[in-house]
Amino acid sequence: TKYNPHSPYSASKASSDHFVRAFHDTYGMPTIVTNCSNNYGPYQFPEKLIPLFINNIRHRKPLPVYGEGLNVRDWLYVEDHARAIDLIFHNGKVADTYNIGGFNEWKNIDIIHVLIKTVDRLLGRKEGEDLNLITHVTDRMGHDMRYAIDSRKLQRELGWEPSLQFEEGIEKTVRWYLDNQAWMDNVTSGDYQKYYDDMYQNR
Questions:
Q1: SS3 (DSSP) at 9
Q2: Which domain holds residue 44?
Q3: Residue 142 forms part of a structural domain
Q4: Cα separations (Å) of 53 from 30, 33, 70, 115?
Q5: Model-level pTM?
Q6: Between helices 49-58 and 166-179, what is the axis angle to 10°?
Q7: How many domains does one find in the chain?
Q8: What is the pLDDT of residues 27-42, one digit of tens each?
Q9: Does residue 130 belong to any structural domain of this protein?
């Protein structure tokens, strides 16, 4: 599908692919472009939807939902993305493009319900107890309603497919964040920045 970004943010990402292809066309650099759907899993920075909401549910903080939560995204467990990159790096065709998706589209509001249900259950709370944390906020300007990824080419040519169903991946992900609260606290507090300040401020 032809690139058609609607915001400066998405346009900047589209431009990176054009730069890569131009280096191949002009200088013969052996390049491959991959386009992936939304990732989730361990160690994701907690400004992203899934770790942010897991942490907010745990601490009973509001869950900010853009608009009515009807934006649709395809989701892929991060380790499946890493496997795909490795496979494409070794076996993909130079100058080609591969889409990496989970065959797994969800509306944001439906994902949030799954997260609440899963976190509540694993914390021993009543199922759905924290649904009242959902808080609808004004949608972002230029926010795309749907991201769709067709991974059939990657599946057909290189034999890749996701290893986890979404509910299974969410279960693993929620358990990881609940078991690694110290990591989450360190990131959300900003303490990790002290390392960079100590290492580089006088260099």
A1: helix
A2: 32-188
A3: yes
A4: 40, 31, 17, 8
A5: 0.90
A6: 50
A7: 1
A8: 999 999 999 999 999 9
A9: yes
